[in-house]
Amino acid sequence: MQIADTAERVRDRLKGINLYLIGMMGSGKTTVGRELASTIGYGFCDTDAVIEKVAGQSINDIFKSEGEQAFRELESKVLGELSAYTRLAIATGGGIVLRRENWSYLQQGLVVWLDVPVEILLSRLAGDITRPLLQVPDPAGELQTRLAQRQRLYAQADLRITVTHEETPAQIAARIIETIPTVLKPPINPEN
Ligand SMILES: Nc1ncnc2c1ncn2[C@@H]1O[C@H](COP(=O)(O)OP(=O)(O)OP(=O)(O)O)[C@@H](O)[C@H]1O
Ligand SMILES: O=C(O)C1=C[C@@H](O)[C@@H](O)[C@H](O)C1
Ligand SMILES: [Mg+2]
């Protein structure tokens, strides 16, 4: 079946609930999230982008001037506000899973973990200067440590999409759409 047909069926079965993408920095939440939204006919939002807009500064500058704690507070506020909408694919920040209160919002939708090995994250983020937590002498070690701290939290997702080799964002979005029915309640069929 064509992905467009599958996407239409999945969209109907979702009944408007939001899709939340979680995972490490560089796992593709923003890139795949945008593709997922357009394929399934949802709107797209990115908590990091909304934070930068409301704060009027880059994430780097927020971390520098206010610190990580202030960023996390803003992040929870933005997540809470976005979760009031429906029919959205929402790319979150890599640390969204750290706060319990964030899960009260995430759990209202369907949570998708993009599980990408550190080697791929590193190759994607080599030379990146927009992620404050990676501006350290040993970004590989930093990613390993943070993944170890967060792994069990990411694992609370409804859906785990493991990326073992490079696939295009469109291929990953298609894989998400094809896998969503496995975690939804089966449709009611009165003839059975
Ligand atoms: N499937 C993919 N194949 C190749 N490159 C990708 C893929 N997904 C994302 N990328 C690239 O990896 C980089 C990071 O992707 P992206 O910004 O979507 O990650 P993220 O999970 O949103 O990260 P963050 O948590 O920091 O917001 C970007 O340069 C993007 O173009
Ligand atoms: O993994 C993280 O803690 C982060 C990921 C990014 O999305 C941004 O939210 C910020 O750089 C922090
Ligand atoms: Mg992102």
From TrEMBL:
<feature type="binding site">
    <location>
        <position position="150"/>
    </location>
    <ligand>
        <name>substrate</name>
    </ligand>
</feature>
<dbReference type="Pfam" id="PF01202">
    <property type="entry name" value="SKI"/>
</dbReference>
<feature type="binding site">
    <location>
        <position position="131"/>
    </location>
    <ligand>
        <name>ATP</name>
    </ligand>
</feature>
<keyword id="KW-0808">Transferase</keyword>
<keyword id="KW-0963">Cytoplasm</keyword>
<dbReference type="GO" id="GO:0005829">
    <property type="term" value="C:cytosol"/>
</dbReference>
<keyword id="KW-0057">Aromatic amino acid biosynthesis</keyword>
<dbReference type="InterPro" id="IPR000623">
    <property type="entry name" value="Shikimate_kinase/TSH1"/>
</dbReference>
<keyword id="KW-0479">Metal-binding</keyword>
<feature type="binding site">
    <location>
        <position position="72"/>
    </location>
    <ligand>
        <name>substrate</name>
    </ligand>
</feature>
<keyword id="KW-0418">Kinase</keyword>
<feature type="binding site">
    <location>
        <position position="94"/>
    </location>
    <ligand>
        <name>substrate</name>
    </ligand>
</feature>
<comment type="function">
    <text>Catalyzes the specific phosphorylation of the 3-hydroxyl group of shikimic acid using ATP as a cosubstrate.</text>
</comment>
<dbReference type="InterPro" id="IPR031322">
    <property type="entry name" value="Shikimate/glucono_kinase"/>
</dbReference>
<dbReference type="GO" id="GO:0009423">
    <property type="term" value="P:chorismate biosynthetic process"/>
</dbReference>
<dbReference type="InterPro" id="IPR027417">
    <property type="entry name" value="P-loop_NTPase"/>
</dbReference>
<keyword id="KW-0547">Nucleotide-binding</keyword>
<dbReference type="GO" id="GO:0005524">
    <property type="term" value="F:ATP binding"/>
</dbReference>
<dbReference type="GO" id="GO:0008652">
    <property type="term" value="P:amino acid biosynthetic process"/>
</dbReference>
<keyword id="KW-0460">Magnesium</keyword>
<comment type="similarity">
    <text>Belongs to the shikimate kinase family.</text>
</comment>
<keyword id="KW-0067">ATP-binding</keyword>
<feature type="binding site">
    <location>
        <begin position="26"/>
        <end position="31"/>
    </location>
    <ligand>
        <name>ATP</name>
    </ligand>
</feature>
<dbReference type="GO" id="GO:0009073">
    <property type="term" value="P:aromatic amino acid family biosynthetic process"/>
</dbReference>
<dbReference type="GO" id="GO:0000287">
    <property type="term" value="F:magnesium ion binding"/>
</dbReference>
<protein>
    <recommendedName>
        <fullName>Shikimate kinase</fullName>
        <ecNumber>2.7.1.71</ecNumber>
    </recommendedName>
</protein>
<comment type="subunit">
    <text>Monomer.</text>
</comment>
<feature type="binding site">
    <location>
        <position position="48"/>
    </location>
    <ligand>
        <name>substrate</name>
    </ligand>
</feature>
<dbReference type="GO" id="GO:0004765">
    <property type="term" value="F:shikimate kinase activity"/>
</dbReference>
<keyword id="KW-0028">Amino-acid biosynthesis</keyword>
<feature type="binding site">
    <location>
        <position position="30"/>
    </location>
    <ligand>
        <name>Mg(2+)</name>
    </ligand>
</feature>
<comment type="pathway">
    <text>Metabolic intermediate biosynthesis; chorismate biosynthesis; chorismate from D-erythrose 4-phosphate and phosphoenolpyruvate: step 5/7.</text>
</comment>
